[in-house]
Amino acid sequence: MIDLTTCPDVYLHREFVDFRKSINGLSMIVEANLQLSPFSTALFVFCNRRRDKLKVLYWDKTGFCLWYKRLEKAKFKWPKKHEQNAIHLTTEQFNWLLRGFDISQFKPHPSLEFTVAG
């Protein structure tokens, strides 16, 4: 079971993936294309070309887990226009993606940092 409360990072692989790939193939993509460690505490999210399936790869400290979701009629709103191969998401954005929202349209207010009140 994916526990989003303890998962600090979620990374989307922007390009579509051949869904014949399983744990070994997806972990190679994490290392080679995303240049991240598949052994981190992050979730790595992949989508197929038709955008009706997701795979989530993660390491739970005892082995790899592969979570799979298939939509019966809808399509995931997958971000297309992005410069990086790995798109960093918050767990809230990941939940939005799973529920069918376009995560590229939801942007929170920018963080502000002040040194003096007034």
Structural notes for this entry:
It is a single chain. 19% of the residues are buried. This protein has one domain. It has a five-stranded mixed β-sheet with strand order 4-3-2-1-5. Strand 1, helix 1 and strand 2 form a beta-alpha-beta unit. It starts with 9 loop residues before the first strand and ends in a 19-residue tail after the last helix. The longest helix has 10 residues. By secondary structure, the chain is an alpha+beta fold.
A few lines on this structure:
This protein is 16% helix and 23% strand. With 118 residues, it is an alpha+beta fold.
Q: Mean of the pLDDT scores?
A: 86
The 3D shape can be described as: globular
What is the straight-line distance between the termini?
47 Å
Radius of gyration: 15 Å
Name the strands of the widest sheet in spatial order: 4-3-2-1-5
Largest sheet geometry: 5 strands, mixed
SSE ordering:
EHEEEEH
Q: In percent terms, what proportion of residues is strand?
A: 15-25%
Percent helix, as a range, is 10-25%
How many distinct helices?
Answer: 2
- Helix and strand content put the structural class at alpha+beta
Number of domains: 1
Total count of strands? 5
- Which runs of at least 5 residues are low in confidence (pLDDT < 50)? none
Pfam family, one: TnpB_IS66
Protein name: Transposase
InterPro entries: Transposase_IS66_Orf2
Keywords:
118 residues; alpha+beta; 5-stranded mixed beta sheet; 16% helix; globular; Transposase_IS66_Orf2; Transposase
